[in-house]
Each structure stands twice: as C-alpha cells, then as structure tokens.
Amino acid sequence: MSKSIGAVAFVASLACLSVQASAQIAVSSNDRKMVLDNGVPKVVAGPKPDTATVIDLGVTPPKVLAEIDVPGSVVGPPLSVAVARDGSVAYVASAMKIDAKDPTKQEADDKIAIIDLKASPPKVVGQIQAGKAPSGMSITPDGKLLLVANRNEGSVSMYALNGQEARELTKLTIGKDTSSPSHVAVTPDGKTALVSMYGDNTVRVLKIDGEKLEDTKREISVGTRPYPVVVHPGGKMALVANVGRGTGDVDTLTVIDLSKNPARAVGWVDLGYETPEGMMLSPDGKWCGVVLHNGTGRPKDSPFFHTTGRLVVYRVDGMRLTKAAEAPIGRWSQGIAFSRDGRTIVVQNMVEENAMVFRWDGAKLVDTGKPIKLGGGGAAIRTAGSL
Q1: In angstroms, rounded to a whole number, what is the distance separating the alpha carbons of residues 283 and 233?
Q2: Which of 13, 71, 126, 306 is 20 to 30 A from residue 292's alpha carbon, by CA?
Q3: What is d(CA 364, CA 28) in angstroms, rounded to the nearest whole number?
Q4: How far apart are CA 370 and CA 383, in angstroms?
Q5: What is the Cα Rg of the chain in Å?
Q6: Which helix (H) or strand (E) holds 18?
Q7: Mean pLDDT throughout 336-353?
C-alpha cells in the first residue's frame, strides 16, 4: 500500500469513528405479532419475528443504521427499551409472546435481549432472565444498574451491568400480580426509583443504595392507571401519564414534587384527549411531549373513534406545564423520543408501522413528511442515556 492510499484509508477510518461517536442513538422495538382489527388487538397468524430498529437522531433526516430480529411487545408502556448512555448496548424487553398452546393468543414472556450496538451490524449478544412480562425499564445515570418492572407479578428486578453482561441482584415484590407495575424511572442522583403501579393507581417510591433496592412503602396517589413515568433532568420533579379506564374520557398527567420529603403529587394536567400512551421530556427538561391515542384504537362505529392520534407538547416551568403546540399523528401510537438538541421529535405509529418525524422550534410542530419505516409496529423507543 502506498503512503497516499494509506493516508486516505486512515482519514476514512477516523471519519467513520467520528460519525459513530457523534451519532445520537435511538432504538425502536417493533411488534409484528399484533395488529388492530377494527378496534380489537389480534394476534397475527404465523407472524414474522419482531425487530429492533437502530436510528441516528443526530442527522437530518434521522437515519436508520440497522434493523435486526429482537423479541418485543406492544403490551405495556412504550418504555420497554433502555440504551446505555454511550450508545454501546441496548436492552429490549419482551412482555408477551405467542401462546405455546394456542397460537391465536399471547402469554407472558420473561426475557430481555442484550444488543451490542457497536457491532457491525448490531447483534443480540445475550439474554436476561426476567420476571413475568418485563415492561418499562431504566438504566441508572452511572450506567451500573438496570431496573425492570415485571408487570404480571408485582415486582421490580435490578441487575448489575458490566459491559454486555447483566447479573441479577434482586427481585423486589412491591405489590400483588394485579398491581401491574408498568414502568420504573430513576432520579438523576441514582438514589430513587419511581414505579407506576397501574392496577393500584399509585406510584411506588423505592430506594437505591449501592446494589440494594428497598421499598420505602411510600405510595403516591396519582391518576387512574398510571403508565409511563419520566423524571426531570433537574431531579426536582417527575411526571406520570395516567391512561384511564378507556371510557372515552379525557385523561391526565400527574406532577410529582421530588424536592419535598416525602415526595408527593402537587398538580394535574388536563390533556384534552384520551389514553396518553407515551411521554418523554426533552434532554434539557424544557419540554414534555405526550402521545395520545385519541380513540384511534377503537371500532369505527364508536362515538369516540378518531382517525388520528395527537402529539401534544408542553412547556415545563418548575412544577407547571403549559400547552405549547399539538399535531395529528397516526393510529394506536406508542413511544416518543427527542433528539439531543430537542429540535427533532419522533413518534411511533403501531398501525402505520412507522415513526413520524417532527421539527420543533419551541413554537410550532412541523411534520417533515418523511416518516421512518419500521420493521413492524413501533411498540417502544428510547434514546441513549434517557432517564
């Protein structure tokens, strides 16, 4: 090899490494087992494998980097994905799988896939044995622990992370099977976990002490059927989306003040629509995006049926949320993710099997008209380092 060719190769190699380092990784879990048949979720006959789509949100338009077969599920809040802060490893939970005895039904799964995102292409390199129906989960800010809500057994599991390895530390029972812990979020200091108890209409507060997980017994009364939980990067506030009873009534967000001891609910936000499936704060904490079904998952003859869901963005000012903008989205929509600069927002649509891409300037939501094609119905999404 000549010196000039070698130099070109070296520069190209550096450029490749630079692109990898600057990428803003998001991972979408896509369910191919379930479809919506006139308002009724049904199992697909002989479904293809579920997938995970790796996306770079740091470029315009966002770019699909890879898509691989990874078990996942639309059952549970769309936070059943966790990505390491450095974008090296992702974890995708599979809450449900095809029933071994009846392929027209589903049964609880108990697996979490470990994905090496640095491999070319990314690949599944391991599997975590979780509880029944592992759902919403989060990695602690220091990257050392993974906490998972086991939705069908009233427990939270905690694992010690080391590269691509995960070691179970504890499985803490915090309620009955019917309590349905759905998501667990962690505060920026890594010392507190908040668990949405869907069946109990509460948020449970847990204490993280090194490799120990303790139930403080503190139950915060929130709205009806709390689902996703997000913690503000400043650590003083958390938000809980309450999906309600599915009766067509307007649903709510609950504001939790974490600066008080004990933490407590201090406010509620009328969302104006029903079923807030997905929710996420921008990385700087200035904005909260909420994904609402708005009746899109109902039969067409239902008085509450609508052809589009809604994306609503709120300005966050301390403990106060003020509606800033909204836009129509697809049907049976699920997760939401912000780019690092907060100017790009993506929203998963289960029915359309895509992720819509919006530009956000702090005043107006603009649909770019260039959705990301997903390998199945978008069921959950998370970015690297999100709380």
Answers
A1: 7
A2: 71
A3: 25
A4: 20
A5: 20
A6: helix 3-22
A7: 98
